[in-house]
Amino acid sequence: MNNPACPQCDHVFSWSVALKQILGPGRRGNAIWGAVCPSCSANLKVPNSRVMLIVASAIFFGSQSSTVLVLSDVTLWQFYAAKIFLILGFYAIATFIFLKLELVK
Ligand SMILES: [Zn+2]
Description:
The protein is mostly helical. The protein is built from 3 helices and 3 strands. The chain is elongated and about 55 Å long.
């Protein structure tokens, strides 16, 4: 697992700081998935291609793996709850794998 780093000063974000900035309500920076480097105050964002990759792989793997549930004896409500849980789980995994920061131009 590689931590996201600032492309300007090579400051390495810890995951808790990076995710709090990118997803948290008190986020700074002006991009949707944005962050501000605590070391050099560079305005950073997650590249759009990475956001697409994270969302797409979460939905893809989440839906794929949830089809396995059809084989087991679950109610419809349990099926959808499990499906959402799986998508969120893969969302988190994809974020850790694909997250990268670049400078906002
Ligand atoms: Zn920096």
